[in-house]
Amino acid sequence: MKATKVFINGEVITADQSGTVHEALAVKGERILQVGTTTDIMERCDAHTEIIDLNGKSLLPGFNDAHAHLELYGTNQLGVNLKQEDSIESIIEKLQMRAEETPSGEWIRGWGYNQNTLLEDRHLTKWDLDKVSTSHPIIVVRTCGHISCVNSKALEMAGLTSQTPNPPGGTYHRDNEELTGLLLEAAHMEMFQLADYSEAEVMLGLQIASDHFSQNGITSVHDAGGYGTKHIRYLQKAAQEGKITQRLYVMYGSLYDSPSVVKAGVESGIMTGLGDDTFKVGPAKVFIDGSSSGPTCKTRDPYKSNPNDSGILYMNQNELDRHLLPAHKQGWQITAHAMGDEAVHMLLTTIERALNHSGNINHRHRLEHAGITPPDLVERIKSTLAVPIPNPAFLYEFGDGYINDYGDRVHHFFPLKSYVDQNIPFAIGSDSPITTVNPLIGIHAAVNRTSKHGHPVGQNQSITVEEAIRAYTWAGAYASNEEDLKGTLEPDKYADLVILDQSILRCPSLQLKEIQVEMTILNGDIVFEKQKEDAH
Ligand SMILES: [Zn+2]
Questions:
Q1: How far is the centre of ligand 1, averaged over its atoms, from the C-alpha of 3 (Å)?
Q2: Block mean pLDDT (10 aa), the chain, length 536
Q3: Are 461 and 418 in contact (CB under 8 A)?
């Protein structure tokens, strides 16, 4: 059988169990035909075969981002990006520019601010945002996606006053009784729902998001949810219309009131696995606690930075059981956002109870994030055969804050080395747009465990490049029960591939994050190719 495309003279990293590296690979249509030496593979060529010379560069299975929010990522691109702003003043200026071109009464949406990196070293308030406009509702989301600030107009539209009690699992921040506009957790989620984008905007956002993911070598995404069941429909529609160039595994949940979305899914009679290899229903997912960088995640011991605070719980153990056990009983994979060690403990308790009910050995129940995970919890992950989904790029972006908030607990934060030692499969996700979608930053952080400012963040948990690659490829496929279809470079698997601009195995570890994606291939077709640089 002749090949449609061959890749020769390269570093073909198969990401298989024994870490095999070949020189060349042949593709026939949408599948991998063969791996081997350049000589072997050239024998598969005829006059119609496209020959790509890798010149020593790496060819890998396409990256599988096991936890990302496509809709949020995409709609963020439509809003005002505040990630680089370093003062409240410059945030106000940037929002004013958007206000000038936005009809009054329409939403102005910004995202990505972090009070810790602002000159003023404080959160935004409604008084800041009222300087931008009092005729537009304004929402500015913090980088964590769990906290936002709105102006007076938005508070008014939501009907919130100083008399309004806090919602369950959320806080309307107050100063002397008066609302400041700062909204935490459920209070934020509720407001974000009100500031919803239209279907046309979401579709455009999804297409932009998918393009960016392809530019980063990502061929599969486990979508971790947007707002409500319509989010799932939008994703399916975008996939059907060819706007998305990744295989999607879609968690059934929502950033706002996930229990009711899970309940609707379970009652509809479907279960995990429905769909095909381009769009598939994933696990039932709820939120247990807050974010790692806020910090609002639920920890066993108080934060080092604040002895009176140990985070926010969205639900107690009974509620968690009540939301997820029916899903398990009906054949769903179950998962939850569990960041702090108390939340990870709760999710493991629910998984243990599920398995006591019926010991399906292939359940592959997941733990989204599993941030602070000390040895006793790693032990329980091992014995339940659950699959953690860590986000090492957080260590790079938020590592300095972690040292401040959690102290020595950074040694148990995303304990990748413990997972490797205990033979626990774990799949890496970016949690983009919370942090960069770039898998090379995730791999860099998993290997080096240094923050952006170069501080070590639990380097006892560093893993090798090969281990990080396998966690970003094969393990994602394992976490969606698709490792027979994709995730390694072996004959008959889908030709979902990424070519890097150099050899990743020979790259000095501190330069891993500089590596760029040169080409992305999905189903045997090129979906991204980096422009050749000018000869000048
Ligand atoms: Zn997430």
A1: 40
A2: 96 97 98 98 97 98 98 94 94 96 95 92 96 97 91 97 93 95 93 91 96 98 90 95 97 90 95 96 96 93 96 96 96 97 98 88 93 98 97 96 96 98 98 95 98 96 98 98 98 98 98 98 97 57
A3: yes
Distance CA 402, CA 410 (A): 7
Q: CA-CA distance, 125 to 152, in Å (whole number)?
A: 10
Question: What pLDDT does residue 297 have?
Answer: 96
Distance 1 CA to ligand 1 centre (A): 44
Q: Cα-flanking dihedrals φ and ψ of residue 14, to 5°?
A: -75, -25
CA–CA dist 162, 185 (Å, integer): 18
Distance 69 CA to ligand 1 centre (A): 6
Query: Tokens 């989301």 correspond to what residue?
Result: 141
Q: How far is CA 340 from each of CA 84, 432, 463, 473, 532, rounded to the nearest angstrom?
A: 28, 19, 22, 26, 45
How far does the centroid of ligand 1 lie from the alpha carbon of residue 341, in Å? 17
Identify the CA nearest to 419 among candidates 379, 477, 359.
379
Question: What domains, with CATH codes, occur in the chain?
Answer: 5-56+493-529 (2.30.40.10), 74-194 (3.10.310.70), 288-463 (3.20.20.140)
CA distances to 99, 245, 283, 294, 338 from 310, rounded to whole Å, are 38, 40, 28, 11, 14
**CA–CA gap between residue 206 and residue 72 (Å, rounded):** 9
Kindly write down the DSSP assignment for every residue of 498-531, as one continuous string.
EEESS-TTTS-GGGGGG--EEEEEETTEEEEEPP
The predicted structure's pLDDT at residue 533: 55
The pLDDT value recorded for residue 534 is 47
Residues 64/488, Cβ–Cβ less than 8 Å: no
What are the distances in angstroms from CA 36 to CA 31, 446, 484, 525?
A: 15, 29, 20, 21
- In terms of Cα–Cα distance, which of 516, 502, 493 is closest to 25? 493
- CA 29 to centroid of ligand 1, rounded, Å: 34
pLDDT reported for residue 145: 83
Place of tokens 């910004």: 110
Phi, psi of 60 (to 5 degrees): -130, 165
